[in-house]
Amino acid sequence: MGFDRAMLKDVKRIVIKVGTSTITHGTGKRNFARIDHLARQIADLANQGKEIILVSSGAVAVGVDRLGLKEKPKTIPEKQAAAAVGQGVLMHTYEKIFADYGQIVAQVLLTRIDSVDRHRYTNSRNTFLALLKHGVIPIVNENDVVATDELKIGDNDNLSATVAGIVDADLLIILSDVDGLYTANPQKYPDARLVPEVSDITQEIEDSAGGAGSSVGTGGMFTKIQAAKAATSSGIHMIIAAGEQENVISRILNGEAVGTLFVSRENRLQFRKRWLAFGARISGRLVVDDGCAKAVRKRGSCSILPAGIIGVEGGFDAGGTVSVIDKTGHEIARGLTNYSSDELALIKGAKTSEIETLIGHKNFDEVIHRDDLVIL
């Protein structure tokens, strides 16, 4: 039994992400017809009492055009200069067009730190909720002007999933130059079919989504699948659809079978767990055996004990957030570790009764307690 898309008519809070290729022409110049169409659909939804947050790419492309550059810059300072110019131009465009439809917009620029630091994560949430309360449409982008590699979320697909998690959205819509997830790359395999619904993001689906997409954007299918994992694990439905389709947002919210729907898992993660899974920086990886992987995947999950761990990757202290992977390299969970990587190298595979003998102390039986573990 598939998901009944008619239920999407009742969603209240929606995050919509638009890619660079959706709002610019192939020349890099702004596509005013497309931006106007997007703004009209969003304004119409806002008038119906829905709360909309727009995550918009395109600042670098618009900046490149405004600066008269022949191609997208390669170095980080040049990219950031283009983004600084482009972000202003883009916001001015949105502000002007949304005003024609009686809507107020706000600029929100986020960096990785806003999601890694728990206080800033909470503060971002409060800001978004205050804007929505005033009937404002927040327009979000990564703060490219100050973000260095280690501070970057890296792409707006994952940024949009982070934002959807921060605000407890009901639905995330990613508008792109592809109209959904296909059984294979449709550019290479003409017989590839659109997948209308995904209820479980398997290793095969992750493996099939290689490489980046169009020349102007950063997000290929790979980042969209990552975003879908984050959204669905947080209890948020996600749809990938083609941005150039007529009335695509309205059609999705009318329950039409547009694009690919990733059905959310029923459990809404508590706020702290969501930050833990999709905000905190991952500092290492624990490889677990088949028995442990099977137990973790079961509903209700379980704590991770030293006996189930067969490998430790990366250097980290106790209290760090680690990724839990099975023997095939598939990520199954994330959590807070009670032991450092050095300690885990000594106690992996051991019984809990042996911990103290091996490292001289035992503060916890569990390496990751079930309350600090998020199943993906």
3D architecture notes:
- By secondary structure, the protein is α/β, with parallel strands linked by helices.
- It has two domains: 5-272, Acetylglutamate kinase-like (Carbamate kinase), CATH 3.40.1160; 281-375, Archaeosine Trna-guanine Transglycosylase, Chain: A, domain 4.
- Helices cover 37% and strands 18% of the residues.
- It has 14 helices and 13 strands.
- Strands 3-4-2-1-5-7-8-6 form an eight-stranded mixed β-sheet, sandwiched between helices. A five-stranded mixed β-sheet has the order 10-9-11-12-13, with helices on both faces.
- The protein is globular and about 70 Å long.
- Residues 211-219 have low confidence and may be disordered.
Keywords:
single chain, 376 residues, alpha/beta, Carbamate kinase, Archaeosine Trna-guanine Transglycosylase, Chain: A, domain 4, 8-stranded mixed β-sheet, 5-stranded mixed β-sheet, 14 helices, 18% strand, globular
The CATH topology of the largest domain is given as Carbamate kinase
Report the sheet with the most strands, covering strand number, pairing sense and barrel closure.
Answer: 8 strands, mixed
What sort of overall outline do the alpha carbons produce when their principal axes are compared? globular
Number of domains: 2
- Rg from Cα: 22 Å
Physical arrangement of strands within the biggest beta sheet = 3-4-2-1-5-7-8-6
**CATH architecture descriptor text of the largest domain:** 3-Layer(aba) Sandwich
Q: How many E-type strands?
A: 13
Highest CATH level, the class of the largest domain? Alpha Beta
Query: With helices defined by DSSP (H or I, 4 residues minimum), what is the helix count?
Result: 14
* Weakly predicted, low-confidence segments: 211-219
Structural class: alpha/beta
Kindly state the percentage of residues in helix.
25-40%
**Mean pLDDT level:** 86
Distance between the termini: 22 Å
Q: Please, what is the CATH homologous superfamily of the largest domain?
A: Acetylglutamate kinase-like
Strand content: 15-25%
Order of helices and strands: EHHEHHEHHEHEEHHEHEHEHEEEHHE
